[in-house]
Structure formats: structure tokens, C-alpha cells
């Protein structure tokens, strides 16, 4: 059974940093691309970032480019999102998602999310 | 345009057929992906590509596409289908950058 468990969320002041983690199990982690998708409570989904199976290819939404960095550790079966220079508008539930392929664009499985609140 | 447009809300009588649509220029080049999200839960993939329904998704869910419009059809809607539905598309970078605003489906 595929399991994705996010952690690292919390309350942080504007301008500060936070690192999210996603622990994966139930599948061969290094065979698949991974994504971060966020959702402001009560609002729609926003793709944040993605990374290919071997980390050679990464992508970012314009809203986070230059501030967020996605990475993965295949040995630890873990996905990360380093979030710097956080803004109030980054407040959201952050989901980790497994892609259907090594470098695709379909989020096949999702974790339950970790809540990030940016507020002074 | 990189935007995908969905009707905010759609309703259907129990057992009837409903079509949820998604419009956007990217759909002329790439297939839509559809996600279902129930309150308090993570999204679930329900349809992708030309004709891909994940295992465990009932066959009453189907997808289609024409020009800049993609559709998710539920044939014989059930009470448990009441949820928010989001369409999504990749762009030329290969990443799924664009989500529609979501359609809230009510089953009457």
C-alpha cells in the first residue's frame, strides 16, 4: 500500500524558513517523480514543485520560484521542500504526491498534507 | 493562456448522468487529469490521459476531450460522488502546473 506522510509544517513568521518532509513507503521510491501541491483551506489546488526520479529535473510554480527548493533522498525514500522567505500567501496545506512515472505530470497518490501557517 | 476554467458548481439527480467540463488552451495539446476531493480528505486521481481510470475507481467515471475542452462524465451518479472535482494539465515543461478552480458536484 502506497503511503505518503508529510511533516514539518507549523506556524512561522513572514520571511523565515521551513523545511517540509515526506516519507514514502509501499512502492519503489526511486522509480517515480514526486510533487508538492498546496491548498489554502477552502480554496483550490495549486501545484508547487516537482522533481524527477533521479533529481535531474525540477520544476517550480512562478509563485515560489527562487524561494522554494525541492529535493529528494532516494536512499531514505524521502521528499523535501525547503521554503525560504516565506510570505503570508504561502499559508496552505501542503500535499506530497507520487507521480505515475519517473518524470511525469500525474499525481497518482497523495499524502494527507501538512499545514503551513505564515503569520506574525 | 495557462488557465483552466471550470464551472464552480454542478448538480445532478441520483442515478443520472453529469458532465463536468474544463476549458483551456493547454488542453489542445495535452490531456486533462481529473481529481476528486471530498471534504477533509486528500485529492484522489479518478481519470487521466486518453482513457486511464485507476484501479478502484468505478467505471461510471470516464473522460473525454475535444479541442480546448475536457470533460469528466459520471454515468449514474451516486451519493458518494458528491465532491469537488479538479482538472489539471501539464505544460511544455512537463509539469502539471495548471489546475482548474474546481467544480463542486452536488448529488440530489
Q: Could you characterize what this model shows?
A:
The complex is a heterodimer of chains A (120) and B (108). With 120 residues, chain A is mainly β. Chain A has strands at 3-7, 10-12, 18-25, 34-39, 45-51, 58-60, 68-73, 78-83, 92-99, 107-110, 114-118. In chain A, the strands form 2 sheets. In chain A, strands 2, 4, 5, 6, 9, 10 and 11 form a 7-stranded mixed beta sheet that branches. Chain B is an all-beta fold and 108 residues long. Chain B is built from no helices and 10 strands. In chain B, strands 2, 4, 5, 8, 9 and 10 form a 6-stranded mixed beta sheet that branches. A 4-stranded antiparallel beta sheet of chain B has the order 1-3-7-6, with no helix packed on it. Chain B is globular and about 40 Å long. Chain B starts with a strand and ends with a strand. The relative contact order of chain B is 0.34. Classes of the chains: A mainly beta (120), B mainly beta (108). Chains A and B meet through strand 5 and strand 10 of A and strand 4 and strand 9 of B.
Report a brief summary of the structure.
By secondary structure, chain A is mainly beta. Chain A is 0% helix and 51% strand.
Summed over residues and divided by their number, the pLDDT of chain B gives a mean of: 95
Output mean pLDDT of chain A. 97
| Beta-strand content bin of chain A | over 45%
Number of beta-strand segments of chain B:
10
Helicity of chain B, as a percent range: under 10%
Care to count the β-strands of chain A?
A: 11
**Poorly predicted residue ranges of chain A:** none
Largest sheet of chain B: 6 strands, mixed
